[in-house]
Specification:
Blueprint (H helix, E strand, L loop, with lengths): L1 H17 L3 H9 L11 E6 L5 E8 L5 E9 L2 H14 L4 H6 L2 H8 L7 H19 L4
Antiparallel strand pairs: 1-2, 2-3
Helix pairs in contact: 2-3, 3-5, 3-6
The structure holds FE2/S2 (inorganic) cluster (FES).
The site of FE2/S2 (inorganic) cluster has 10 residues, from helix 3 and helix 6.
């Protein structure tokens, strides 16, 4: 138990030293929206310029309100924290509101992230927008 806490603390310190803000670190360590949704309204996938892959699962009600979102991610800490923060920004909101959420909003929610990881935020946001657009166009 003590070892577990210590390793978590050292991971936290390593990420902070690398330039991750406290919320970004929490999102990465908790990974609260990681996984898939059974009977999702939409499943979409995007490959980033770095070669990492994100898959998004959207669950939407009849009024186009986003009930739930999950990401499956083969990618870095930046990608994971950005995707988890993006979910908090769109859950319970309309599809149109979610389409208006941008990289700057996610960056703000993370407080900070290393500059070389900014493209990971883009991947999280682009994957979400692609999922919404494909859902709207009926392209499952
Ligand atoms: Fe590929 Fe971060 S390096 S998503």
């Amino acid at each position: 138990m003590v070892t577990e806490i210590t390793s978590r603390e050292s991971e936290r310190k390593m990420l902070a030293d690398a330039g991750y803000g406290a919320p970004a670190i929490d999102y990465f360590l908790e990974k609260k929206y990681m996984g898939h949704i059974e009977n999702a309204s939409q499943v979409s996938e995007k490959i980033g310029s770095c070669g990492d892959i994100m898959k998004i699962y959207l669950k939407v009600d009849d009024n186009e309100i986003i009930e739930d979102v999950r990401y499956e991610i083969t990618g870095c800490a930046g990608a994971i924290s950005a995707a988890m923060a993006a979910v908090d920004l769109v859950k319970g909101q309309s599809l149109d509101h979610a389409l208006g959420v941008n990289d700057g909003d996610v960056f703000q929610a993370l407080e900070n992230i290393p500059e070389k990881k900014h493209h990971c935020i883009q991947l999280a946001v682009k994957t979400m927008h692609q999922g919404i657009q494909e859902l709207k166009s009926g392209n499952k």
